[in-house]
Design brief:
With about 220 residues, the chain is of the alpha+beta class. It has 6 helices and 18 strands. The protein has a single domain, classed as Ribonuclease Z/Hydroxyacylglutathione hydrolase-like (Metallo-beta-lactamase, Chain A, 4-Layer Sandwich).
Length: about 220
């Protein structure tokens, strides 16, 4: 397979073009990054994409859909030499999907990143999407996330702080903090794609949330 990535310099969001072979069949995955590198790749590979796969409907992933003018797909699809599975992975967004192409590539959208996971207040759903769905994929599978760097399932199983905590390999932290005036305990402290960190916090009443580091007052 052939893959080209484009990344928006502000949102740091990725859009992709994936093709089965030169002169063959291709699809876009998300559209929140500049399209020019992907259009150039399509011309270079002599392919004519007919669909755009949407991992979820947030603006930084759908911004250029109207410009593509293609059918938006939120389901499994077989086209040319591409066999595409659509895995429901809610938590960051209710409509979130991860797409697995030819059992080789996982386009994980905003549910799994290198060293982090997607943010949100529905932590049980995020945990289930990561641990019960994506971590069941082959360790060697390439993960092409919705923001910044590529990784693999195996790397995230071994090194992602959220995954290591959820699998019981690391204890939760006990650092105090505050979110919107409420006291919290910081359970997981992870890097994130924007350099500001991603934290799993627990409120005094037992609620948990996964938040960007800038939203948490530490200490």
């Amino acid at each position: 397979m052939l893959v080209e990535r484009s990344m928006d310099p502000g949102w740091l969001s990725n859009a992709y073009l994936v093709a089965d072979e030169e002169g063959g069949t291709a699809v876009y995955v998300d559209s929140g990054a500049p399209l020019e590198p992907l259009l150039e790749a399509a011309e270079r590979w002599r392919v004519h994409p007919e669909h755009v796969l949407r991992t979820h409907g947030h603006s930084d992933h759908v911004a250029h859909e109207p410009e593509l003018g293609l059918t938006v797909v939120t389901r499994a699809l077989d086209t040319g030499g591409l066999h595409i599975e659509a895995l429901p992975t809610p938590g960051h967004a209710d409509d979130h999907l991860a797409f697995v192409v030819n059992d080789e590539l996982c386009f994980s959208g905003d549910i799994l990143f290198k060293d982090a996971v997607g943010g949100g207040s529905d932590v049980p759903a995020i945990r289930s999407s990561v641990m019960d769905v994506l971590m069941k994929l082959a360790p060697e599978m390439r993960v092409l996330p919705g923001h910044t760097d590529e990784t693999t399932i195996g790397r995230e199983w071994e090194r992602n702080p959220f995954v290591r905590y959820w699998r019981g390999d690391e204890p939760g932290g006990d650092e105090p903090g505050r979110v919107g005036g409420e006291e919290v305990t910081i359970l997981v402290d992870s890097p994130d794609y924007d350099g500001k960190g991603k934290l799993l916090v627990r409120f005094a009443d037992g609620r948990e949330a996964i938040l960007g580091g800038s939203r948490v007052e530490r200490g």
